[in-house]
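Slide 14.
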Amino acid sequence: MARAFGDRLGVLHLHDNDGTRDDHLPPYLGKLDFDALMLALKEIGYAGNLNFEIHFGYVPEDLLASQMRYVRDVGVRLRKLLDGE
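Slide 15: predicted structure.
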């Protein structure tokens, strides 16, 4: 789909899912191939933000920092894939 939109793609909100519902999972916790998506975005020259729209559900307060670190690390990884690093 990214390739079909090409340079008309200006904004993204990213999340994963189980393939049946709109789960808003963090990337790599569902079935979507984010590595392939980053390759397609790189091919079309996408230079916009990678904005996550995710939901963890209930998370105990003492685990929030580790979950946020995971999301940050995923964002860094995706950006590196997109930038070709």
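Speaker note: Residues 2-83 form one domain.
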